[in-house]
């Protein structure tokens, strides 16, 4: 039995290694023109089959022309990464922000992955922002903080501004909105660079500070925790061990409640009373979807109620979305009327969840489980999906009318937004925009006022290039609409930060709100 088990394990490792080798060879080799054109046809057919609002912002005639032109432009064999650079700007013209095309990257064997986990790439410790048509370093984690406030002039031989212009053509906002591009390309610059260049062991950047240029090389280095592990640890006393267990348990609770972000050791959900005025509450939500959120909102709004807070600032800047369930829970604390968060979601067929679970790129284990439970999934989908006027609509639980929370907030509300306020952030912003007591400050949201196609997703892997495309399957929208379609929630007070603000650690949007509250208080 032991021999059989070892034989199976060795066989699995060999298959895995061969699979990795085969994938790397296929994605790095040159593909025949006709095979790549076939990939173009297949991905466009997938969009037509599964996307409920494919022609919402770009007409069928225009989109047909874009995909036909792409096929014509492929005149010689190219590899998968070069194909990604051709395909992604075309898919962008669907103008639906939740559609994304993934690049191909080198895969590693289990042994190689184990070794890589012991290292970190210093380049990923940098946070970037694109302001005033330039790329800046706004934060550095665990490395040289003197880089903060420096302009990124070049990366290897490429001008940073040229790379930004290129990357902005490889993803879409919702509709015709423009504010998402500068925000998203800045925050996600390392991700876009990786998709463009692939796996790297080192990278040289040229920085500009005032009028001088200097270079810095970033490498893959051992993680600090590996060095800490190698150091000899002091033996703890029983009391110290007990205190450590209590502290670890408390930290685990807080990590769940506030949504701990391991990357930068911060929290997704934050609440405090501002020291400048204890009657002002400040709630910063970085995303909707990390850990357990209910306890956080219950405690926060209980504090607001107890303090009889008259002014609340809800900061949704750089919140790119997440779970509708969290948005629904939060909004119930911000309204004093019965509400329906979203309308029934338009889908292309009566079995949307089966399309989601049985995606081409879904893990085989998920497909097997989904296959076993498919009779129940089918029955559930058929009950929840209705046909009206020749279209299918899925009834999510968020499309039912609900009452506000008993301890809902009814004071003045200021909402801070920017181009990175996307998806679920735009959804709650649309609802709040209809309330006269709410003042929006910042810039137009990157997500559309009139909704988006998201909810659940299908991932399709192209047979030749192995590129993957992700597309939403449900139209998610409120009952509120604005004309013209294709734009975000616009601020009542438009304020755009500058690099000078960042260097001086100023927050112009927040400062305006506090000044406005003070002005109203004194008048």
UniProtKB/TrEMBL annotation:
The reply on keyword Magnesium is no
Judging by the UniProt lineage, the source's domain of life is Bacteria
What are the Tail specific protease domain coordinates in residue numbering? 309-496
**InterPro entries in the record, alphabetically?**
ClpP/crotonase-like_dom_sf, Tail-specific_protease
The protein's UniProt keywords, in alphabetical order, are: Signal
Extent of the signal sequence: 1-22
Name the PANTHER family for this protein.
Answer: CARBOXY-TERMINAL PROCESSING PROTEASE CTPA, TAIL-SPECIFIC PROTEASE
The name on file for this protein is S41 family peptidase
């Amino acid at each position: 039995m032991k021999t059989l088990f070892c034989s199976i394990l060795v066989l699995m490792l060999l298959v895995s290694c061969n699979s990795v080798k085969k994938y790397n060879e296929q994605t790095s080799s040159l593909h025949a023109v006709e095979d790549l054109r076939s990939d173009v046809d297949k991905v466009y057919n997938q969009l037509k089959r599964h996307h409920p609002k494919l022609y919402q912002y770009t007409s069928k005639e225009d989109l047909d022309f874009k995909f036909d032109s792409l096929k014509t432009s492929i005149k010689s064999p190219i590899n998968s990464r070069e194909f990604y650079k051709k395909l992604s700007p075309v898919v962008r013209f669907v103008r639906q922000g939740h559609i994304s095309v993934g690049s191909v990257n080198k895969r590693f064997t289990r042994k190689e992955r184990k070794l890589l986990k012991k290292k970190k790439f210093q380049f990923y410790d940098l946070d970037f922002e694109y302001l005033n048509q330039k790329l800046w370093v706004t934060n550095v984690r665990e490395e040289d903080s003197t880089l903060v406030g420096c302009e990124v002039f070049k990366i290897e031989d490429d001008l940073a501004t040229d790379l930004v212009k290129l990357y902005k053509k490889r993803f879409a906002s919702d509709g015709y909105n423009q504010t998402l591009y500068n925000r998203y390309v800045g925050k996600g610059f390392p991700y876009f660079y990786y998709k463009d260049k692939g796996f790297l062991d080192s990278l040289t950047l040229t920085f500009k500070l005032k009028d001088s240029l200097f270079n810095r090389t970033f490498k893959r280095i051992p993680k600090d925790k590996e060095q800490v592990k190698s150091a000899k640890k002091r033996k703890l006393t029983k009391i110290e061990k007990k205190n450590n267990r209590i502290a670890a348990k408390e930290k685990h609770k807080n990590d769940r409640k506030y949504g701990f972000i391991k990357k930068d050791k911060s929290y997704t959900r934050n609440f405090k009373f501002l020291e400048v005025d204890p009657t002002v509450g400040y709630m910063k939500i970085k995303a909707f979807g990390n850990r357990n959120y209910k306890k956080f909102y219950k405690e926060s709004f209980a504090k607001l109620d107890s303090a009889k807070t008259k002014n609340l600032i809800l900061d949704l800047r750089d919140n790119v979305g997440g779970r509708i369930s969290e948005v629904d829970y939060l909004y119930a604390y911000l309204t004093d009327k019965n509400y329906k968060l979203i309308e029934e979601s338009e889908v292309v067929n009566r079995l949307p969840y089966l399309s989601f679970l049985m995606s081409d790129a879904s893990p085989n284990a998920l497909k097997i489980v989904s296959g076993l439970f498919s009779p129940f999934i089918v029955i559930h989908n058929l009950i929840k999906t209705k046909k009206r006027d020749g279209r299918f609509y899925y009834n999510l639980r968020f499309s039912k009318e609900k009452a506000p929370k008993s301890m809902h907030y009814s004071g003045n509300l200021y909402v801070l937004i920017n181009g990175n306020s996307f998806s679920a952030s735009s959804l709650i912003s649309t609802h709040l925009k209809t309330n006269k007591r709410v003042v929006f400050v910042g810039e137009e949201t990157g997500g559309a006022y009139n909704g988006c196609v998201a909810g659940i997703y299908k991932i399709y892997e192209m047979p030749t290039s192995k590129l993957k495309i992700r597309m939403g399957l449900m139209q998610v929208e409120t009952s509120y609409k604005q004309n013209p379609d294709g734009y975000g929630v616009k601020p009542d007070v438009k304020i755009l930060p500058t690099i000078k603000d960042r260097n001086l650690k100023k927050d112009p949007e927040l400062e305006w709100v506090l000044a406005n509250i003070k002005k109203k208080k004194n008048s």
